[in-house]
Amino acid sequence: MTITVDMINRWDEEDGLKKYRDEFYIKEGSIYMDGNSLGLLSKRAESSLLSLLDSWKNHGIDGWTSGEEPWFYFAEKLGELSAPLVGAKKEEVMVTGSTTGNLHQLLATFYDPKEKRTKIVADELNFPSDIYAVQSILKLKGFNPDEQLIRVKSRDGHTICEEDIINELNEEVAILILPTVLYRSGQLFDIEKITKAAHEKGVIVGWDGCHSVGAIPHRFHQWEVDFAYWCNYKYLNAGPGGVGALFVHEKHFDKTPGLTGWFGSDKQKQFDMEHTFTPATTSGAYQIGTPHIFSMAPLLGSLKMFEEIGMKKIRDKSLHQTRVMMELIEQELSGYGFKMTNPLEDVCRGGHVSLEHPEAARICKSLKELGVVPDFRKPNIIRLAPVALYSTYKDLYETVQILRNIMNEKHYEKYSNEREVVA
Annotation-wise, does 281 bind a ligand? Predict the structure, then answer.
């Protein structure tokens, strides 16, 4: 099928989510294709941040228990709003910490090496911070990460075969840590299948949802995922450094978190100031320190949009837009040396398109100069992420046309083929 301008215009006209684009601050003359790295600011997120600032101005310390959104219960409120995005009960989700900080907390809780079960399985394409956390917990427990951390190899350098993961699980493995979506290629794992296979072998499973939550619906409770963790600043548009989130299945609520702090207390006991920790009976127990209220505030406004729309509509549009972008790339960029490394099948694809090219770093610099904001990932990957809430089909078409012009004119040759400090 040849994609025409008329088709692009029709898809934009028929887009059931098009009204939400006006909710976001989009720089004039810019096409934003980096929402899988940092989502754009919405007017609702701005409003909720300003509202929380007003609560401080108007209530002072009484803001902890007074005002429209009392701070003392704010993390629980955001957890309840986040729960439908991952298919969880409200008690199972908490907005707290950061991605890596939450993984440290969860590993400290669930990694309990006994007898032969001492190993942790991950994958060699995982985001480095997850691997750092796993190596850290192994060292703290007195193990050599080179011996106890198993990283499943990729057969093609871009994806991981699910059967290779499952085959690594045996009586020596304590925990499996995987991303729901691989950050470079956008491969979406079959979470239900892998979780079930791991449990059949006695292995605890934790999922990093950074590149899926807000773009892909999940059913963590139904699939009996043991724990999960994710950031909120990508598809959920909570802002740079926005507070993260975690999920703990209710079957584990009897566990005491490995890292305890006063905000993990039972709320009725927290201000008793006892030196005996009485944990909350929900995922709230996994909080450590005082919530970062202003870093959490934008998420409130953002989650209200997700509550209105529902994840199915978001996923449907995301899949169609990535499909259209893939077809446009094949149609317009054949012969220019690009290789699509993301899965082609809808069931295996996350929310972005991944292009490999030897000149990727300098092509990304050209894109930015010409008004397209992409994402570069070492060594040679260009990530393009249409976001259902604010990307138009015209954005996709124009991005590919600009890419073609860059290649035709060799515009990228003016730049060095090296990443910037922040890629």
Answer: no
